[in-house]
Design goal:
The complex is a heterodimer of chains A (about 600) and B (about 300). With about 600 residues, chain A is an alpha/beta fold. Chain A contains 19 helices and 17 strands. Chain B has about 300 residues and is of the alpha/beta class. The chains are: A alpha/beta (about 600), B alpha/beta (about 300).
């Protein structure tokens, strides 16, 4: 699998990397791990969201410390909920105190940054980096009075000393210095608001005189209308941003999931009617907005519903019991600790003691691997194509069957459902990559991995989650296979097996999946494809089984598990799981255009 | 010059931790008695519960993240009560032979060599089984009879003899939590084995003040302001770990390493070598930002 990049994509990737880093930082500092951070045209602090003013190129190239300063500054506002007090400042302004809101904001900026620095002394560097390029030096003295006062409040509040203000502003600020310093070390926005009410009379005279010297400006909207009256057509109105076209979600496209949820399918999806399996498409791209680390792709599955689980369990109970019984009897013999070999220390083999008389001292045995050391990872395709012929339900049954059987035998198992965050075609349109089919080797949507059962979770504690296994969006099997591989790699078990349950219709070029499967196998992890209803998996995985119904699945699983669990470490690693012919499967369809 | 021992009558016969008294093993000449230990008593009362287990001769299991002071608590108590302490690091390859004992052979014939558990049981030393959730099931099962009321092990490989522990023998086990799957090689502890530990202590990190004191005492770095900032950075990282923002850990041990290095180098430079270099590049960026918040 290769990923090509162009310059704008490199920029976008850098922006995304910085966004994630800042998001981590702000979440950790605020202990709010649901906080989202992004870049936008203007700074904005919303409920659970912080947007930093930066264009993409700027966000990618800006000094990181400066960017961090801006982000932390907004975080300070978010944590203090400054906006809750802003209406009081607005009221003061409307009561005839011009610029009250901005002046209070400047004082509040200083107070918040001081508070942050008291808690995190290292943040001073970030705040200063944000500020210093904007100071303006001696140009301050020719700035409008309100801007000078605003800057002065911030300067004194932060303890920067005197700036080069005009004499009148300098005198007013000197008079208010004590109050400003006290306000900037306060604890709440309310305290700084109160302080501003005391400070305002000192600087208010200056502001009113300055305001009186200028012609009052009409409000912005009035000005725009006036300008249009004078020069029709010259006013630049904000353009309506082009979004993804509306997509008709008719009732015909609504399906019901495993838990009875209504699941909307877009119009480009025709359930069960359009399988695709394409090879030789070439290089794969990943859109920068869809790049995530492994951890970020993990979605917490819902707790699941007992009744939904029981409904599925009733259908698999008989097979599960049979599977467990057969496996138990097969494993019982292998479950004992065996000894073997001829060593000079270890467990004495008393039957060989007579050899000591002959001067042979290699009379000891040591534990030998009984072949129990196997870990399984079950990767279940949750793409929308699994909806056809209820393939997802068969996958859920298989997961439950495997989970129940392996849990009782204490064999480590992880169950992962994989899909994307949204439909690829929709994501491509949203990103302006149209026509979407021309970008079918570009992953535009983030991956999602629902870990229904981790290796260290008892199956019984999490089995209800499997009731939520259902078709969702698309699937990029190669990346999810590598995700599962990276997780199973950390296991101590000597043999690792990844079972991929899929209908064999990966997005993009199937050659990438074939290459990924080979790479994983070459790294010592066995990959077995379990195809439901279509035998594309045979073209992908060296080891593959194809099933059409649950009974066949149970039989194949028993053969597969018996082979893996009893023969692991005994030369069976590269064995091929043999299959009988499956005549009633549909023939492969040509690749979708 | 030989150090003159205080008259025995002047030495206290027991040490008191909270409401628990633990007898001091005066005159114990075991070579396994730990050297002097520095230990900050956590406010959660872990040490008192551990002392309770010792005073009642109950096996105790300590569960906690790496570096929270599980081993140190046992070692400190052993030092204070003058008991020998043997520490066994269990791993997936530790066999019953190494644990209980094994037959060896020479020209004269076969002979038995005690394993570390039997040796400690007979000598009356304490034994700490580190990482008990990484051991083979065979070892776990041979512990069952020792942890039961029977308090014995049977040497089936030898002559079937029964070994009962010395009255001073105590058994402790420790493990990292296996629930989150962050510690490779560990697994869920068998319920039957878990059930046989009458005292199970889940240890958390020390409180901020306690950790500051512990780091200052163990690193020799007396700059409380700097150490406190280091501890706060560690607390932030731990919160990030709990929320899967960072993978890895930031143990008290790691803070001590950092504080010790900061005696010779700049704090941020020390962080690079004592903290950040132990992390993946992705995690290191996040932790670097946290460290930068404080220094």
């Amino acid at each position: 699998m290769s990923t090509t990049t162009s310059s704008p994509e490199t920029t976008a990737r850098q922006v995304e990397a910085r966004r994630l880093r800042l998001e981590n930082l702000l979440q950790i500092a605020s202990r709010n791990f649901d906080l989202r951070v992004g870049f936008d045209r203007h700074d904005r602090v919303g409920r659970g969201e912080i947007l930093i003013a930066a264009e993409p190129a700027e966000a990618a190239a800006a000094d990181y410390v400066r960017l961090k300063g801006a982000a932390l500054h907004l975080l300070a506002h978010s944590m203090a909920e400054t906006v809750r007090w802003a209406h009081e400042a607005v009221a003061e302004e409307e009561a005839g105190q011009p610029h009250f809101l901005r002046l209070w904001h400047a004082l509040e900026d200083a107070r918040l940054e001081n508070a942050m620095i008291r808690r995190w002394p290292g943040m001073r560097r970030a705040f200063d980096a944000r500020l210093l390029p904007e100071l303006g030096g001696s140009l301050l003295r020719i700035a409008p009075v309100n801007q000078q006062v605003e800057t002065g409040l911030y300067f004194l509040g932060r303890g920067f000393g005197d700036g080069q203000f005009s004499p009148a502003v300098g005198r007013a600020l000197a008079e208010a210095r004590e109050a400003i310093v006290a306000a900037a070390s306060g604890e709440t926005p309310q305290a700084s608001l109160e302080a501003m009410r005391r400070i305002y009379p000192i600087v208010g005279g200056l502001l009113r005189r300055a305001a009186a010297r200028r012609t009052p400006l009409p409000p912005a909207s009035d000005a725009a209308e006036a300008a249009e009256e004078n020069e029709p057509g010259r006013v630049s109105r904000p353009e309506k941003r082009e979004g993804p076209p509306d997509i008709d979600m008719s009732d015909e496209r609504v399906a019901v999931g495993g838990l009875g949820q209504r699941h909307e399918l877009p119009e480009w999806w025709r359930p069960g009617s359009m399988p695709w399996f394409e090879r030789g498409l070439g290089t794969k791209d990943v859109h920068p907005s869809a790049v995530r680390s492994d951890v970020q792709t993990i979605i917490r599955p819902s707790a699941g519903d007992e009744s939904a689980y029981q409904a599925i369990w009733r259908e698999v109970r008989r097979e599960a019991g049979y599977l467990e019984m057969r496996l138990t009897s097969m494993l019982r013999e292998a479950a004992y600790l065996r000894y073997g070999g001829r060593f000079r220390s270890g467990k004495l083999h008393t039957a060989k003691l007579w050899k000591q008389r002959l001067g042979v001292y290699r009379l000891f045995e040591r534990p030998v691997d009984a072949g129990r050391s196997t870990a399984f990872s079950l990767l279940v395709d949750e793409s929308a194509s699994m909806k056809g012929q209820d393939k997802y339900r068969l996958a859920a049954k298989t997961a439950i069957l495997l989970g129940e059987a392996l849990d009782r035998l204490e064999i480590p198992l992880e169950i992962i459902g994989y899909t994307t965050a949204e439909f690829e075609a929709r994501a491509a349109m949203r990103l302006g990559l149209t026509p979407a089919h021309a970008y079918r080797t570009t992953r535009c949507s983030a991956l999602e991995h629902r870990i229904y059962k981790r290796f260290d979770e008892p199956f019984r504690a999490v089995r209800h989650r499997l009731a939520d296994l259902q078709p969702r969006h698309n699937n990029w099997d190669e990346e999810s296979l590598l995700f599962a591989f990276r997780r199973i790699q950390s296991r101590v078990e000597r043999t690792r097996v990844i079972l991929v349950i899929s209908d064999g219709q990966p997005n993009g070029d199937a050659d990438h999946l074939i290459a990924a499967a080979r790479a994983v196998e070459n790294l010592g992890c066995k990959v077995i494809g379990v195809g439901i209803g279509a035998d594309y998996v045979r073209q992908i995985y060296r080891n593959a089984i194809v099933v059409a119904d649950f009974r066949q699945m149970a039989e194949e699983l028993l053969r597969l598990l018996a082979r893996e669990l009893t023969a692991s470490g005994r030369g069976a690693r590269r064995s091929r799981v043999l299959l009988g012919p499956v005549d009633h499967l549909p023939a492969p369809r040509p690749a979708a255009g | 010059m030989a150090k003159t021992a205080a008259p025995e009558s002047r030495q206290p016969a027991e040490m008191r931790i909270g409401s628990v008294s633990v007898p001091i093993n005066r005159g114990n000449a075991s070579a396994f008695v730990p050297a002097e230990q520095i230990y900050i008593h956590p406010s959660q009362g872990y040490l008192e519960k551990l002392a309770f287990a010792v005073s009642r001769n109950l096996p105790a299991l300590l569960i906690g993240e790496t570096g929270v002071g599980k081993t140190l608590a046992v070692r400190y108590l052993a030092w204070q009560t003058n008991n020998g302490l043997r520490r066994v690091n269990l791993n997936g390859a530790t066999t019953v032979d190494e644990f209980l004992g094994k037959m060896l052979i020479n020209e004269q014939g076969t002979y038995w060599v005690n394993g570390v558990l039997v040796d400690a049981m007979q000598a009356g030393d304490w034994i700490l089984l580190d990482e008990i959730n990484a051991c083979l099931p065979e070892i776990a099962f041979c512990l069952h009879s020792l942890l039961d009321d029977d308090r014995m092990v049977v040497l089936m490989e030898y002559d079937g003899r029964i070994v009962r522990p010395h009255p001073n023998f105590r058994l402790f086990a420790s493990m990292n939590p296996s629930e989150e799957g962050r510690y490779g090689g560990t697994k869920m502890l068998n319920e039957a084995l878990l059930d046989r530990f009458p005292v199970v202590i889940r240890m958390d990190y020390l409180s901020e003040d306690e950790e500051v004191q512990a780091v200052m005492a163990q690193s020799g770095n007396r700059d409380e302001d700097v150490v406190r900032r280091m501890v706060r950075a560690a607390i932030d990282v731990r919160a990030a770990v709990r929320n899967e923002k960072v993978f890895g850990s930031f143990s008290t041990r790691r803070v001590i390493d950092w504080a010790r290095m900061a005696l010779a180098y700049d704090v941020r430079e020390s962080a690079r070598f004592a903290v950040l270099s132990k992390l993946s590049s992705y995690d290191a960026e996040t932790v670097q930002d946290i460290v930068d918040n404080y220094f």
